[in-house]
Design a protein that fits this description.
translocase; 225 residues; 8 helices; ATP hydrolysis activity; alpha/beta; membrane; 35% helix; binds adenosine-5'-diphosphate
Amino acid sequence: VNSLEVRELAYAYPDGTQALFGVDLTIGRGERVALLGPNGAGKTTLVMHLNGILTAGHGLVRVAGTEVRPGTLKEIRQRVGLVFQDPDDQLFMPTVRDDVAFGPANMGVKGEELERRVKNALDRVGMADRADRPPHHLSFGQRRRVAVATVLVMEPEILVLDEPSSNLDPAARRELAEILRSLDVTVLMVTHDLPYALELCERSLILSGGVIAADGPTRSLLADP
Ligand code: ADP
Ligand code: ADP
């Protein structure tokens, strides 16, 4: 089963703006893929279809074989982990541990299983030693890592990151790259940071004017004039 399949996805906003014109793409398990493209290309609109914030006007989206539709949203939102550009949109609890525990606790996970999952997620982003801190005492780069942990703890099929390298200093940028490389999860990252795409993603998609204009090895796409 592929992590993600998008077929003939078209979408127009209520005001009539056609943002997607028949997008087709498949992402296999364990791939790390960059989604590139100019402003207004439809990247945000596409991402909003992956976890059902928007539902297909035309076409379909499948995550791990399950179609995104009103009846599957609960399952889909667990399987698609969205990491927003601003970690402060994702962190709102008194401590890092509480923020990471929030999602699974909401799904009814508790006790030792909850503890195990929280510890595992914090370990994966190198933040286990900061579990008792308030998120707002952490650096921006650390907050972004905690935001990644709040999503990993849900054991998603696919991790979708919006501009993961934005606002990071060189050290934080490197740390996050290492973390993303070490994960055994499918990753789709929306980015304008071509060096980051080159470093982390074997494959890139270029979205332009609401269609996939290119899909292939990042190295060759970015070498194109
Ligand atoms: P990107 O994320 O690549 O910058 P978007 O998905 O935000 O692109 O936008 C794609 C197109 O849809 C653009 O023409 C944009 O102006 C339009 N658009 C985005 N959101 C809305 C909205 N809420 N209502 C109307 N048009 C929108
Ligand atoms: P990004 O650069 O992260 O893709 P955008 O700057 O394209 O984001 O859009 C930021 C927000 O504004 C999004 O929520 C998008 O839906 C909304 N938006 C973009 N274009 C329009 C538009 N023409 N009308 C209404 N909302 C829009």
